[in-house]
TrEMBL record:
GO terms for molecular function: protein serine/threonine kinase activity. This is Histidine kinase/HSP90-like ATPase domain-containing protein. It comes from Actinophytocola xanthii. Gene3D superfamilies: Histidine kinase-like ATPase, C-terminal domain. Keywords: Kinase, Serine/threonine-protein kinase, Transferase. Residues 10-105 form the Histidine kinase/HSP90-like ATPase domain.
């Protein structure tokens, strides 16, 4: 079993918290959720990584087609997925029978993933 110190664990959790926040804000703003919908979060911490799944009943979307905001142009919106991708080791999407599922993973390797 791999052990990490408290400072590293805190930084890891802070990165994941921000990445999950950005993904959830995108869901709220863009998924066209039915009234009364919920966003479901699941978390698994294993010996090799931390994974959070974000599930929602919203409209299907193409993660690969999400544009990055233009460089050198200051704007307040459009950075959510880019920020999440930079913070985690892996960000994946799949459509399920009940909606969308995004998986965010930070590997517990030597570099501790993303940023």
């Amino acid at each position: 079993m791999q052990h990490i110190d408290a400072e590293t664990a805190g930084a890891l959790l802070s990165r994941m918290e921000l990445a999950v926040h950005e993904v959830c804000m995108n869901v709220v703003e863009h998924a066209q959720l039915p009234p009364g919908s919920t966003i479901e979060l699941s978390l698994v911490l294993s010996s090799d990584g931390l994974t959070v799944w974000v599930r929602d009943p919203g409209e299907e979307f193409d993660l690969a087609a999400v544009p990055s905001p233009p460089e050198r142009v200051l704007q307040e919106r459009g950075y959510g997925i880019k920020i999440a991708r930079a913070l985690v080791s892996e960000l994946t999407y799949r459509r399920t029978g009940s909606g969308n599922e995004l998986a965010l993973r930070i590997d517990l390797g030597n570099d501790h993933g993303g940023a």
